[in-house]
């Protein structure tokens, strides 16, 4: 488990790295009349990186520490690697909020909304202006600057890794794994848009597709990549049990075995809490996914398990443009009474049990101490609320 | 100068590399119900990469060949590096077209427009549908898929370079230079949006800012990076005249000296041809930038050099939402009669003369043969129409 000082250290280091990697390179010149707007984008880059729980960075550091123990002279470099994963997450979220038209992120205005507001102030327009065309224009510029901020943060995350690999004791495969994570998340975002188009009259396919997409869009960077990168930095190839490097693909990928299940359980829990969570604990009102008409595993299970009247209602109400408060209430009740919520609970606790098993096998294969193994279990447990494990 | 076979070879190699780098990685699984949409995005990735003149790839290969001569066993790897620059350009254009609301690119629907249309077909909606909300939805999904395609292509371009550096004879600094190019272009796109907000009553600042932004948004990946990467792949550090590596920044950067001027001249010529070009040669009607109200160096110069009546007219008409055909005609006449067009011509021919001088110095410093030097001059000349050199 990461030490308590790690979270402030991660936050501090992220701010410093983002500042460096979003700055104009040495020897270049930004014209004075453009610098207020570029400064606004840089500042938003720092702000958008604030406020996360740093679960991904902590998982990377925890698996590294569990393998490497106290023998490490390399931990500050591994810290940078952990920060790079967090910066990549921010890049992905900035683009995701534009794609999903989300105005809020971590309780604050999302990046493109904040950029539109800041630009309105800089240029004397605002959303309060009477001219709708000016407002639409500013909104569009906000999205434009948000796209570029996401691109800058994505490049920054790779730049951080590229600078770090030259300093790491074990660097083989790290940049490649980091780029693979980028690719998987980007494919996952496309698949997530595709899932929204799976017909509701085939709930079995919807459940299968949703669960598969969790591996791409969530587990990839939340759990699989942090575990893979932490292992590689500790000099361990995540694949074991293969006889030769050329057969590496045939072995068991330890990071995949733990990470794909943990990441899937994490996303299932996130979707479940959106329906049954306490608003003050999850930091937003429940039912948000239902209002948005999101195709979740819960919905797919309810479409399979509910009685005919409820199934027909669900199909109709999720095909509509919007759902009101009464709909949210009735849908939540159907999710509960059909057994879909219980099924999600069972899915999550089965996955968590599998994760425990995979950690045990990994700990044996890597000859971890019991303390080290327990620290990995504790860190992984942070991804799933206690009541759902 | 690149050999005639290079262009088909570049096209062929780009298609193959994009196909590989946009595919699901080995051992992963895309759920069947999502695969038609992902396939559409992959196909669009190939299509968006078609049709360029490959000037950037050819410049990279030309400077490499000029330094390396016939001694190269490495040319197929350098070819991949050249392709990576082209793939990055496509990534940037896909995002740029979303930001600029551009429906066309290289005479075809731009990526996000094509993706919206393809998705409409897949899911049975289309722009012809009567429901405006469905159309707006599809358009927004098109932008969402376009953002992700740009991200995928950007990651692919870095992935290509990362695979190539391990095979190159001289790889030092190459990935770093490629990531710097990414960062410079991304900053340049932000600055380009900022230039649109420079007040028209300060045309001197507008001209200065526009010219500075050309270095960021155009020269960076069009000329400076291809020259830098080609030199590095040939084992040459672009900085000469410094005594020690720690003073590298103090020497003359040959790629910068040639590239920043050539790229600036290229962009000035592009803006000038938009006003005075023959529509059939530039592949689009003239006056497009004027209709869009783009802040160009031509406009800044005209605002400085025209008489008071014309200046006031320009300030008023460029502050308006739209400009019609009569405006385009009058503005074009003012650009001409104020001497702004002549000034752009003089700027371009001065820059071209400086480029020639910098090539000469570089050829001497690197002890190039006259043939090699001439091939560099010929390749650089492709960036500026003959009538403007």
TrEMBL record, chains A, B:
GO molecular function, one term: metal ion binding
Swiss-Prot/TrEMBL cofactor(s): Mg(2+)
PROSITE patterns found in the cross-reference section: POLYPRENYL_SYNTHASE_1 (PS00723), POLYPRENYL_SYNTHASE_2 (PS00444)
Alphabetized SUPFAM superfamilies for the sequence: Terpenoid synthases (SSF48576)
Keyword vocabulary terms for this entry: Magnesium, Metal-binding, Transferase
Biological processes annotated in GO: isoprenoid biosynthetic process
Gene3D superfamilies: Farnesyl Diphosphate Synthase (1.10.600.10)
Metal-binding found in the keyword field: yes
Coiled-coil region list: none
Domain of life from the UniProt record: Bacteria
InterPro entries assigned: Isoprenoid_synthase_dom_sf (IPR008949), Polyprenyl_synt (IPR000092), Polyprenyl_synt_CS (IPR033749)
PANTHER family: GERANYLGERANYL PYROPHOSPHATE SYNTHASE, SHORT CHAIN ISOPRENYL DIPHOSPHATE SYNTHASE
Annotated family: Belongs to the FPP/GGPP synthase family.
Protein name: Polyprenyl synthetase family protein
Source organism of this protein record: Bifidobacterium fermentum
Lineage: Bacteria, Bacillati, Actinomycetota, Actinomycetes, Bifidobacteriales
